[in-house]
Amino acid sequence: MKDVYIVDAVRTPFGRHGGALSGVRPDDLAAHVVRALVERTGQDSVDEASPLSASASARGWPSYSKGSVMSTPLPQADIDLEIAAIRAAREGAQAHHPDRDYAPYRSTALRHPKQPLVPLKDPEAAELTGPVFGVTDVTALDADLTRQHLGEPMGERITVHGRVFDRHGRPVRGQLVEIWQANAAGRYPHQRDDHPAPLDPNFTGVGRCLTDDDGGYAFTTIKPGAYPWRNHLNAWRPAHIHFSVFGTAFTQRLVTQMYFPGDPLFPYDPILNSVTDERARQRLVAAYDHDLSKPEWSLGYRWDIVLDGPAATWMEEGR
Questions:
Q1: Catalytic site residue 102?
Q2: What angle do CA 56, 61, 62 make, to 5 degrees?
Q3: pLDDT tens, 185-231?
Q4: Is 240 one of the catalytic residues?
Q5: What domains, with CATH codes, occur in the chain?
Q6: CA-based angle 221:166:308, to the nearest 5?
Q7: What does the alpha-carbon distance between residue 294 and residue 114 come to, in Å, rounded to a whole number?
């Protein structure tokens, strides 16, 4: 029988009756997964014969060791070549979701399913124990991330408006939409986020709202900053906001990311480029809308979410 290791997972930012942010940075899991394996097995480094080491060797990765993701991380130029090769191989092909195992995005090799899915004997049990919410759980303050503390947060105040549609263009009403993000300096309030940038005591970076009768949502927040991550040498993530659309049950929850127009980091980001369809990548980028900007208060962005169909917003769910 094979050993099974259960490592910490990314949690929904709002669990049952409020919940809490994950202790793990959403897109910096490689180091955390390896650290968890090392700590729980007592090994200072991954054994050459281990499945983890074999998976890394098959992709030409360097060995993993305690305290670091890669002993000799690849430079950006090598990541760019991998992205270009995959894009060329997929040219003209239609895909509905990014691959779960996308080589330039290093940690996908360590955390995507490699075995057949295990069917639940009682699917309703997941609903009985999963996060729940009601109309009274969501307040207007939840949607304004700049008013959740005593002081004003630092950074550029923005408002993000949009609508949630089904595949037929019909508005999805009463939908729970959650967001979470880094602060203006590119820092999450996670204890494992050791990026040397300042935390903002007046900004937690989480919000939620329910869509109205037109499927509309609106958030007031601070434009997040770019930040480094340990995927490869000198890796930086473009500014983005994580979005969760709950569905009618927790098992229907979809998660995606919204980006900002004109970001110079787009070509260098393996996560965004795991979406190999150029048109689909563009659907992840919000549009500046001057009519949504509020005088002397905030700049406005519009970003609609389509849940299914040929114009669907790409979600973090792969083959």
A1: no
A2: 105
A3: 999 998 888 888 999 999 999 999 999 999 999 999 999 999 999 89
A4: yes
A5: 123-306 (2.60.130.10)
A6: 95
A7: 48
